Structures are given as C-alpha cells and as structure tokens.
C-alpha cells in the first residue's frame, strides 16, 4: 500500500518537521509513505493526470466527515490494494479542481487547523491507524 499526503503550503517549521519526520519514519514499517509539497497555485490536474484512475483520493475539508482513529484505520484497511492520497489545502483552501479527483472528504476537527498543523496531525493519525490495525501498544498510550 502506498499513502501520499499532498499539501499545498509552505514548509513546516523545524519543530513541526521534526515531529513529522518521527511519524514518517515509523510509517515505513507499515506502508510506502511520502509527503509531496506544492505551491498553493498548483493544479491537481498536473499532479494526478497519470495516477487518478488507480488512486483513491481523500481531501481534508471542514465540511468533510469526522472520523475517529479507529474509523480511519478501518478506511485504510479498505484500500490496501490502491494508492491512497490525502489532499491538504493551503491558506486559501483546496485547489479549485479538487472535485474532479476527490472520492471522499474528511475533517480532522470542527476547528480550523493551520495547514502545517493539519499535516502533522494527519501524519500521526495515519501512523496511529496502522498501530490500531496491528494491535500495537502505541494506540493505547
């Protein structure tokens, strides 16, 4: 399984990046994982032209469905045979052409999170989901 987070934002601070690195390294035990960063004005069409037919794309949006960690784990488990992309918008939200590609919208919180924090939270939650699926003690901490 390959999971990619696509974010349209500036680089995280050094502190934020150090935490992201921790979870990114841990995720390598469970899946092929990467984070792709693009400028806020980049079109999704440019990114997904070749990948969109096989990938399952989930965008983060405040109007999306809120999931518990266990429900996110279940969702990951449903897509083990597909590439899975999570899209995080930048300061101005999601790219305009997002609806052409997105299969589902989820929300990390009813509160608005800065996109850099959303990246950290999503990375940690994906890691947590795999620990749930593998009955790891991390989930219980």
Please tell me about this protein's structure.
With 141 residues, this protein is α/β, with parallel strands linked by helices. It has four helices and five strands. It has a five-stranded parallel beta sheet, with helices on one face. Helix 1 packs parallel to helix 4 (115-133) and helix 3 crosses helix 4 (115-133). The longest helix is centred in the last third of the chain and has 19 residues, at 115-133. The mean pLDDT is 88.
Summarize the structure.
With 141 residues, the protein is of the alpha/beta class. The protein is 34% helix and 24% strand.
Summarize the biggest pleated sheet: 5 strands, parallel
Q: Spell the H/E element sequence.
A: EHEHEHEEH
Coarse morphology: globular
Distance between the termini: 26 Å
Radius of gyration: 14 Å
Helix content: 25-40%
The SS-based structural class is: alpha/beta
Taking all residues together, what is the mean pLDDT? 88
Helices, by number, come to 4
User: Widest sheet: strand order?
Assistant: 2-1-4-3-5
The low-confidence parts are none
Proportion of residues in β-strands: 15-25%
Protein traits:
141 residues; five-stranded parallel beta sheet; 34% helix
Strand and helix map with partners:
Layout: E1 2-8, H1 14-27, E2 32-38, H2 44-48, E3 56-66, H3 69-78, E4 84-88, E5 104-107, H4 115-133
Parallel strand pairs: 1-2, 1-4, 3-4, 3-5
């Amino acid at each position: 399984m390959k999971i990619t987070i696509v974010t349209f934002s500036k680089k995280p601070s050094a502190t934020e990046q150090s935490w992201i690195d921790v979870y990114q390294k841990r995720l390598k035990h469970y899946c092929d994982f990467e984070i792709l960063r693009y400028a806020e004005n980049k079109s999704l069409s440019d990114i997904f032209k070749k990948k969109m037919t096989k990938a399952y794309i989930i965008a983060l949006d405040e109007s999306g469905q809120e999931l518990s960690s266990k429900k996110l784990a279940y969702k990951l488990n449903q897509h083990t045979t597909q590439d899975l992309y999570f899209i995080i918008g930048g300061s101005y939200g999601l790219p305009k052409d997002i609806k052409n590609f997105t299969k589902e919208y989820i929300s990390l919180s009813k509160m608005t999170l800065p996109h850099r924090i959303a990246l950290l939270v999503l990375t940690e939650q994906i890691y947590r989901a795999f620990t749930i699926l593998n009955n790891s003690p991390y989930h219980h901490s």
